[in-house]
Each structure stands twice: as structure tokens, then as C-alpha cells.
Specification:
Helix content is 12%, strand content 32%.
């Protein structure tokens, strides 16, 4: 889909009824237990349903029960060497500790997302296309930490300008051939840019016309189609249209969905397609659309080309943002029973936010940061505002609202620009980080700019007042996180800015690590 930056930022034969019922009952029952989730994966379920995976991508876990091969590759900035990350066990969660060790004291990007299916449809750095030049950026490898079944793992954080692609695939549907796909996204990380997609796209990086794509889209763009509420929505990018129903425009049946972990499903066959979705942590799937292809020219029959994209549109439109954890594409049109069984496997996997402890500066810990300046501020905590992106301090007590308590709670992360330092992710706005901009602290998603990771990285030191901890800016090492007139900045001890005042600087830049309010 072409979206200028100044405007945005034949169904397969069904299983016999008895076999389908057995599949649904057997797999849904079995996947409720963790032991079953460890012995089969989504692609085993799709294969049992007669619609095998022809692409299976995940940086968090194996998608076949017996899979022990490569999940993804990272490259570190310090020496440009690479490392493949594999599951801890057959069918298990990614070995995040291997990545952490390899990327210690530097940064890493994700260079390859390997295809776990036998087809070899790996995703690598997307080249330029008709909508935007390239190559696209690669994802920061530590920007989307989570836990899966209690084990640490990393997703793929797509900032604007980031994208992955494979134009030379094997086994992916072309023309009007049937296919299915699903993806797990961070339902809190999105925008209205074009286009945060995963799925089938053009092989030449150009918009080649209606019906040349079939990909999952997630975001709140209203340029082509939209659903009920304010979004975000799961929609189908079928080229020159984001479809939430039979045609472009408003379709009331497609709800706004913002689950922290979101399952999105799309399938298409001969003059038929469907959208489904639900929470990736619990519950089943809802059907958002099930019907004929769009009635505009070019969509029936389809002219799918068989490339695979992640994070971008078919013509390399790359102004969207989102987070991807896992996804597959199938040969053939999966039954609802098969998809329901896959959803049960997903919810049994145990996706969680990645907060593993409380009250310490260890990455993964949930904390609040308490000011130490006396007498004004010893009951004040660093918090973000709900009305804008600004960060400040305010009085938080046990009587404070749940919203205020959440705004004053952070998840400690390894530093985005240096893993030996720290970054701070919002608890109630996952995917958004504390960062300085023009020296003032804000809460933002990664904007894709080269400075963001450094702006969001702070190195802990002994408190400048001799109490608690001070947090030194990674890219302005004479400046530390400071409150000044109740607003948060990075500030030096003396300078031309008002917030660089030497008065109470040492206390204002010293913080106590407290138990989290939320």
C-alpha cells in the first residue's frame, strides 16, 4: 500500500465431520495442560488438520513440538559478529540467556527470523520498494522482552522504518490458492501508519494492484477501512485496501481490540475469506468477518504473489509500528476447529509481560522510583502523565487511584543502547519507554530514529547525594535524571538551563528504588 509519509506518519476439502470434531475435542482438551503444550506446537495442529505450515516464524518459542533448530539470529554492534538463538528444549522457549550473554555490554539487532517449517522461508532485512527506499532498519533485539511459560524471551519490536521480507519463497500461496495465517502481536503497540503487516505480499516490492496481497494488519489506520470504536483493529491487507469486512470503509462487526497479547488470524480461499482474533493469554477466538471477497475489481479471483513481509506494506510502506512474537502461514484453508485448537495451544504457552520480580534494579523487576529531596518531595514518585507524554513527580500514597499508581510504576529493562545500563518501560503502556528529548523526560514508543535507544538508556551510579541511586544519561554523561519544579529532566550540576541549577542538584538526582505501586 502506498501511504506517503506526509499523510501518515477454493477452500480445501474439509475433514470428515467426525475427524474434525475429534481434532477439536482432542487438541483443545490436551493443550489445556502445560505438558501437552510442550509436546506439540501450532504447526503440528495445522498439519493434523490437513493445512500444514509453509512458514513458521517466532523469536519466542518453537512452533513444532519436536523443533530444536534455529529460531533467529542476532548481530552485536561491538564487532558485527552473529549468533543463532535456539530453543532451550525441543519444542520449547528461546534461549534468551544465550542472547543476553552474547549482547552484554553492547547492543544487538535481529538479522534473521528463521522459518521453522521445512520450506526455508526465512525473513531478513527488507529492501527498498515503491513507497520508500531501503534497506529497512533491523529490530533492536532487546526491545520487546516477555516471558513464555515463565521463561524469558524476546519479541520483534517494529519501530517505524523497520521491516523484514522474503521475496523468493517456497510453498506460499499464489494466485487464488487458499491459505491461512496467524500472528501474536502486542495489542498496546500500534499506530495509524501504513502498514504493520505479516503475511503474503508482492515479490517485487511494488504495489502491483488489487488482490496481490493477503496479509494480517494491526493498527488504527482509517485510510481504507476500519471497524467499531476507535481501534486498533485486526484487518486484512489485500492491497489498495485494509479490509475489516466485505468492502472498504466502516464495518461494525470488526471490534477494537487491544489485548496485551493478541492472537490475529486470517484465511482466504476462492471468493471467501475470514478474520478471527482473541486474547493470546486466555479464552477462545471471535470471528470478525466471514464472507465473500471484496466486490471491487481485482479481488475475485485473487492474484497473490507469495512473498512474506513483516512490519511493512507490500510496496515497503514503512511508517507503522508494532510488536510481533510468533506467526505462521499455511497451505490450504484451515477449519475453525483447527484454528480453535491452535488458539488453545497459544493460551497454554503462557505469554506474560516479562516482569519477574519487584523492588530491585535487576532487568525484569517492577519498581517505583521515589524522590529523596527534603522537605518537598520525599513522598513523590517519578510518573508519566496520562494527558500527554511528559514525565514528572507527584505525591503517590496508598489512597491514590489505580491509574496514578500504575503511572508511577516501571519495569526495569536492559539498556536499549547498552545492555550493561538500564531502560524503563511503562507498566500500563507496554512498549513505551522513558526517554529524554530536548533534555525533558517523556514516555514514548521508539520512533525509529537513531537517537532513541541512547535517549532511553540510563546508567545507574551511587546516588549523587550519597543516598540511593542516580541515573546517568547514556549519551549526555554529565547529565542525570532530575526533578525540577516537579518536572523531570536530564540535568547537569550547573549550566545554562534552569533545570541545571546547582541548588539541591545532588538530592534532586538521587532516587530510592521502591516497591512498585502497581
Amino acid at each position: 500500500m502506498i501511504k506517503p509519509p506526509w499523510i501518515r506518519g477454493v477452500r480445501r476439502a474439509l475433514l470428515a465431520a467426525g475427524a474434525t470434531a475429534a481434532l477439536a475435542a482432542g487438541l483443545l482438551t490436551a493443550t489445556a495442560a502445560p505438558s501437552q503444550a510442550a509436546t506439540q506446537g501450532p504447526c503440528d495442529i495445522y498439519a493434523a488438520g490437513g493445512t500444514p505450515c509453509v512458514a513458521a516464524h517466532s523469536t519466542t518459542r518453537a512452533l513444532y513440538g519436536a523443533y530444536t533448530g534455529r529460531l533467529y539470529q542476532v548481530r552485536r554492534a561491538s564487532d558485527n559478529t552473529t549468533k543463532d538463538i535456539v530453543p532451550l528444549t525441543a519444542g520449547g522457549v528461546a534461549d534468551a540467556a544465550a542472547q543476553d550473554s552474547f549482547c552484554a555490554n553492547t547492543t544487538c539487532v535481529i538479522t534473521v527470523i528463521y522459518d521453522q517449517s521445512p520450506k526455508g522461508n526465512n525473513l531478513t532485512q527488507a529492501p527498498g520498494g515503491g513507497a520508500a527506499p531501503g534497506p529497512d532498519n533491523l529490530a533492536n533485539a532487546i526491545e520487546a522482552p516477555v516471558t513464555v511459560g515463565g521463561h524469558k524471551a524476546y519479541g520483534v519490536y517494529i519501530a517505524p522504518g523497520t521491516g523484514y521480507r522474503n521475496n523468493n519463497t517456497n510453498g506460499i500461496a499464489t494466485g487464488d490458492q487458499p491459505e491461512g495465517m496467524y500472528a501474536i502481536f502486542n495489542g498496546k503497540h500500534f499506530n495509524g501508519g501504513c502498514c504493520f503487516d505479516y503475511g503474503n505480499a508482492e515479490t517485487n516490492n511494488l504495489d502491483t494492484g488489487n488482490g496481490h496481497m493477503e496479509a494480517l494488519y494491526f493498527g488504527n489506520s482509517k485510510d481504507w477501512g476500519w471497524g467499531s470504536g476507535n481501534g486498533p483493529w485486526v484487518m486484512a491487507d489485500q492491497e489498495n485496501g485494509l479490509f475489516s469486512g466485505v468492502n472498504r470503509g466502516f464495518n461494525a462487526g470488526d471490534p477494537s481490540v487491544d489485548n496485551r497479547f493478541l492472537t490475529a488470524m486470517l484465511k482466504g480461499g476462492a471468493n471467501q475469506w475470514a478474520l478471527r482474533g482473541g486474547s493470546a493469554q486466555s479464552g477462545g477466538l471471535s470471528t470478525y468477518y466471514n464472507g465473500i471477497r471484496p466486490t471491487a475489481g481485482g479481488y475475485n479471483p485473487m492474484s497473490k504473489e507469495g512473498a512474506i513481509i513483516l512490519g511493512i506494506g507490500g510496496d515497503n510502506s514503512k511508517w507503522a509500528q508494532g510488536t510481533f512474537y510468533e506467526g505462521v502461514m499455511t497451505s490450504g484453508y484451515p477449519s475453525n476447529a483447527t484454528e480453535d485448537a491452535v488458539q488453545a495451544n497459544i493460551t497454554a504457552a503462557g505469554y506474560d509481560s516479562g516482569s519477574t520480580s519487584t523492588g530491585s534494579l535487576t532487568p525484569g523487576s517492577r519498581i517505583s522510583l521515589k524522590a529523596t529531596t527534603s522537605p518537598c518531595c520525599t513522598s513523590h514518585y517519578l510518573r508519566h502523565n496520562d494527558t500527554d507524554t511528559k514525565v514528572a513527580i507527584s505525591n503517590i500514597t496508598s489512597a491514590s487511584s489505580a491509574t496514578d499508581k500504575a503511572d508511577a510504576t516501571w519495569i526495569v529493562r536492559a539498556g536499549l543502547a547498552n545492555a550493561s545500563c538500564l531502560s524503563f518501560e511503562s507498566v500500563d503502556k507496554p512498549g513505551q519507554f522513558l526517554r529524554h528529548f530536548n533534555y525533558q523526560l517523556n514516555l514514548n514508543f521508539d520512533d525509529g530514529g537513531s537517537a532513541f535507544a541512547k535517549d532511553a538508556t540510563f546508567c545507574p551510579t551511587t546516588g549523587n547525594s550519597g543516598v540511593g541511586t542516580s541515573f546517568q544519561s547514556a549519551n549526555f554523561p554529565t547529565k542525570y535524571i532530575r526533578h525540577y519544579n516537579y518536572t523531570a529532566y536530564i540535568a547537569s550540576n550547573g549550566g545554562t538551563n534552569a533545570w541545571d541549577s546547582t541548588t539541591s542538584w545532588a538530592q534532586d538526582t538521587s532516587w530510592l528504588t521502591a516497591s512498585p505501586w502497581s
